[in-house]
Amino acid sequence: MAFSTSDSTTAKVPDIEQKVSMGGASFLKNNLREYGLLISLVAIMVFFQMMTDGTLFQPLNLTNLILQNSYIIVMALGMLLVIVAGHIDLSVGSVCGFVGAVAAVLMVEYKMHFVPATIICLVLGGVIGAAQGYWVAFYKIPSFIVTLAGMLVFKGLALAVLGGSSVGPFPEDFQLLSTGFISDPFAGENLRILSLVAGLLMALVLLVTAVRGRSERVRHGMDSEPTVFFIAKNLVFAAMIAAFSYLLSSYKGLPNVLIVMLLLMLIYDFVTSKTIIGRRIYALGGNEKAARLSGINTDRLTFYTFINMGVLAALAGLIFAARLNTATPKAGLGFELDVIAACFIGGASASGGVGKVLGAVIGAFIMGVMNNGMSIMGIGIDWQQVIKGLVLLAAVCVDVYNKKK
């Protein structure tokens, strides 16, 4: 009896290994967009590094690149969930500017401490998201219409709150949210040791997490990417993190806002891939009727995604206001276009149900590197808009082509 059990156990191992190896080709084919994104980002960065005579990878420019795109990445995390759920939010730029205006009035005119003012602004963002999500979720009004109205409303409210003029400067402690760097007691003359160690640890954690995740998939007989591609992808990611950490450490170290972004990325990656609510959001976007029949409260789930979007738009508004050190009536203008483009370029589907956190972040960095590189090259804002529009159109065309295929 023991002999037959041993035989059956050993017989399963080749089956699992065969399934993994056979699934490698299909896994690569199904995830071609993900590899394409990484290759595209690396290619774009190398291209602009060459075209700008090495300016792109200068520590000062890299720091500015992170600060310039931090609020876009924060909003892209929320927009990803909205798009995956099968909706869209056109009001995020206006909400971002409106919350920044409210923060300026509270901190500058009413002299409120930045901590309670920040909490009030985040709660305000959640209330705005709830107000818009209520009409979308429970009255079935298309999100395009509701958030288009919201874009106009909050753009006007921002102008009214500021009285048509800029308000600032903000308290220095609040400015550290966007312009500060992590303190380093071991800082040398030309290198921030703590920032470098933190960056190397992040690269190591990335590798360990990826290896453990792949081991789990192999052990359970799930499709896994080919070993060569797995090693290459993760080594590229780790090398990029390590290299960027060194470059940033040679300037002022890791920006505070980068730490905030990384924490949010980890949280949202965990929520979307490891939690029940994350899987339900994908089910909602994939087929709302089927999700409802399976017992998912689709209305409440839609409501929650808009609340989440409102909070992240408020956080982005605070980050942007802290970076400018003032609130202006035109703050947030056009942000929604960059945020939505980052999600679609990052692999999110316009029909819902598809999209990853890492893809949205890579999409945001692609847009950011293009903006930064073209500005350094002296390309006018008119042609920048044309090029970004064509890139967005190409990304959507690839998504449609993959679906038909």
Labels describing this entry:
405 residues, 78% helix, 0% strand
Structure explained in plain terms:
The protein has 405 residues and is mainly alpha-helical. It has helices at 2-30, 32-51, 59-84, 92-109, 114-138, 143-162, 172-179, 193-219, 227-249, 256-274, 276-286, 288-293, 298-324, 335-345, 357-377, 381-404. Helix 3 runs antiparallel to helix 13, helix 5 (114-138) packs antiparallel against helix 13 (298-324) and helix 11 (276-286) packs across helix 13. Residues 1-23 have low confidence and may be disordered.
Short description:
It is built from 16 helices and no strands. With 405 residues, it is mainly α.
How many DSSP E strands?
0
Cα end-to-end separation: 50 Å
N-to-C order of helices and strands: HHHHHHHHHHHHHHHH
Number of helices in the DSSP assignment: 16
Strand content: under 5%
Spell out the blueprint of helices and strands.
Blueprint: H1 2-30, H2 32-51, H3 59-84, H4 92-109, H5 114-138, H6 143-162, H7 172-179, H8 193-219, H9 227-249, H10 256-274, H11 276-286, H12 288-293, H13 298-324, H14 335-345, H15 357-377, H16 381-404
Helix pairs in contact: 2-15, 3-9, 3-10, 3-13, 3-14, 3-15, 4-5, 4-6, 4-13, 5-6, 5-13, 7-13, 8-9, 10-11, 11-13, 14-15, 14-16
